[in-house]
Amino acid sequence: MAAQRPENINEIILDTAEELLKENSFSEVTLAKIAEKANISKGTLYYYYKSKNEILFAVTDRYLSRQWDELIQWTENKEKDTSPHRLVNYVIERNIAYSGLRLHLFDAALLGDEEIRSKLIHRYDEFQKLISSKIAERTDRVSADYFTWLILTVSDGIIIQNSLKNDAFDTQQFLKQSAEYIKKFENMRKA
To answer: Over 14-79, what HEC string results?
Structure first.
């Protein structure tokens, strides 16, 4: 009789790939390494995913889906202060929380992987629209589309500075100052 397989093989594969990507570059992670570390056969892995790219995007997609759901939940919580300056901090902090995964996507896309580049742009567009709608709900004092792209590009810049281990850049201080400037801007516009 064959050994019973856990029903969550897909989650095991994605968890394993994510774990490997925390310690290795995308090029160093192979399907064989994922299968071995997940304690599954290569055939089982291929049943779920045909390529590393599919796994990389599935891992990232899972994270982004959670991030999407959490943003909606957070912004719809009437007990929380979700004013624009808090919204900016919330989005940026979550964007940089999984910088390793994003760096792998950037790397693959910039090195010519058209499939990853296309999927990444699609996700940026989706998040831009969601964040923009949440900003527009909170203020009409700024262009929500512009402000959203500013948030997304700042997040990417922070990821790069943190990856470079740039001691001259203090992420927490930057976020704190950004929130203060946004509050001042909001108050100036109200006057």
So the answer is: HHHHHHHHHHCCHHHCCHHHHHHHHCCCHHHHHHHCCCHHHHHHHHHHHHHHHHHHHHHHHHHCCC
Is residue 127 predicted with pLDDT exceeding 80? Answer: yes
Instruction: Count other C-beta atoms under 10 Å from residue 61's C-beta.
Output: 13
> pTM above the 0.85 mark?
no
Backbone angles phi, psi at 49, to 5 degrees: -140, 135
CA distance 156 to 95: 8
Q: What is the pLDDT of residues 65-109, one digit of tens each?
A: 888 898 899 888 888 888 888 888 888 888 888 788 888 888 888
Q: How far is 188 from 191, CA to CA, in rounded Å?
A: 5
**What is 157-189 written as a DSSP string?**
HHHHHHHTT-TT--HHHHHHHHHHHHHHHHHHH
